[in-house]
Amino acid sequence: MSPRDFEYALAALCRRDGCSDVQVVGRAGDLGADVLARSPDGRG
């Protein structure tokens, strides 16, 4: 699995587990947070 595929898989798991506002941002290898989401209880 490529780093980019991993980010999209992680985003899908976040959505599955009830997160909202899920976004894949940035680029693979930039050493930053590449998936942003809001948890089911509203924390960002």
UniProtKB/TrEMBL annotation:
Pinpoint the Restriction endonuclease type IV Mrr domain residues.
1-40
Q: What class of enzyme is it?
A: hydrolase
* Record's keyword terms, sorted: Endonuclease, Hydrolase, Nuclease
Pfam families assigned: Mrr_cat
- The reply to whether Iron figures as a keyword in the UniProt entry is no
Q: Which InterPro entries match?
A: Restrct_endonuc_IV_Mrr
Q: Which domain of life is it from?
A: Bacteria
* EC number(s) given by UniProt: 3.1.21.-
Q: Which GO terms describe its molecular function?
A: endonuclease activity; hydrolase activity
- Under what name is this protein listed? Restriction endonuclease
Q: Which organism is it from?
A: Nocardia jiangxiensis
In the record, what lineage is assigned to the organism producing the protein? Bacteria, Bacillati, Actinomycetota, Actinomycetes, Mycobacteriales
